[in-house]
Amino acid sequence: MAKARTLLSTSSTDAHAELASQHAAAWNSQSSERLDPKCDLTSLRPSPNNPRRRSLDRAGVTHEKITELARRDGEGLDSWLDRLDDFCESLRMSDPVAATTWSELIDISVSISTSELLQPIVANKQGIIIAGERRWWASLLASIPVNRVFIREMSSVTETVSRFIENVLRSDLSLPEMISGLRAVLAEVTGEPCGPDNSKITIKQVRSLVGKGTTQSAHYRAFCRLPEDDPILQKLMVGAYSDKEVAYSDASKRLDELRREKAGIQTKATSIPANDESCADPSDTSSESTDKSNERTTPDPKEAQSAMMAKLPPLRTRLPGTGGGKAFLHAVESIPDLPVKIIEQIATVKNEWEPAGDKTRRKMLQSLLNKVFDELDALDVAGSIDSQEDDQ
């Protein structure tokens, strides 16, 4: 078991080294940085804003537990690894999620023990770790009290972004960790709290941070536009969703509700009687006609939308050119809360726009805009229904 863990750890050395060189090259270009080759690791402390804070705390990664499991003086590598494997196996019986967190941490610790710390830890001048908290814990677990640390002073925005990207690069974050970290980054970058009113959160911005495709980035943007106290966000943060598509569907519906509420578009109660039936005379049938005449009914939204669309004239305009078409599609893509299917269609049209002929471009653009207009028309229909009810 110990040998297998050693082989597993050393097999990731190349990727580890590549990341190390990339980060080192980027950070060495900063004049405000210095490398401490023998930094006292006990002088550092973890950040409460680490995206992995949730999983590390949940697994019980503490100074006390690290000290208990750390490699002892004179203890051989195999003996130490056997002790760690026994700990993980016993933990796996009661808490497999925590066992996985510890197993990953142990792998890093073995790698550091056998091939040193290839990617230095990064901390600010106050000793708070910016990047590399797991490498820090792993070094202490391997009983390595000093190691290479970059000491760097940076703005809070840069620090938050660096910490998030570091964790995204190293390995996959859980959905709650990704959302928590991404919301913290976007709040710093945009200067506004995450929520439905933060229009600065775009798919392009999310994509640049998470390195995902348009569809995945649209999912994360929806999660980041939920209010802080929203029940859907709370379910996401406790890991209640096992399917991200289902989570996105619920988040999209919730954002649509919030958008309608903000615009004053609400579905009102129907069939409100003018008289209280409990006070009416059973033999008096005149109240029936009065009640019926005073009933308020809400028009069916789909019927209202179809009726409204039938009255709208067709749009006649010329096609934009290659560059203009791409710029226009980019603007359409920025419309808030478009469904993923439409976002994917926009991406397809953008990719096929340049080589396509005018006839194909016309068909693609017409199909796309009709679907976009259908989404936007829903707001007009709801607003019209709301006005009709107010007049009654």
UniProtKB/TrEMBL annotation:
GO terms for cellular component: chromosome. Residues 62-168 form the ParB-like N-terminal domain. Coiled coil: none annotated. Residues 24-60, 265-307 are annotated as: Disordered. One of its GO terms (biological process) is chromosome segregation. Pfam families: ParB_N. SMART domains: ParB. Residues 289-303 have a biased composition (Basic and acidic residues). InterPro entries: Chromosome_partition/occlusion (IPR050336), ParB/Sulfiredoxin_sf (IPR036086), ParB_N (IPR003115). PANTHER family: CHROMOSOME-PARTITIONING PROTEIN PARB-RELATED. This is ParB-like N-terminal domain-containing protein.
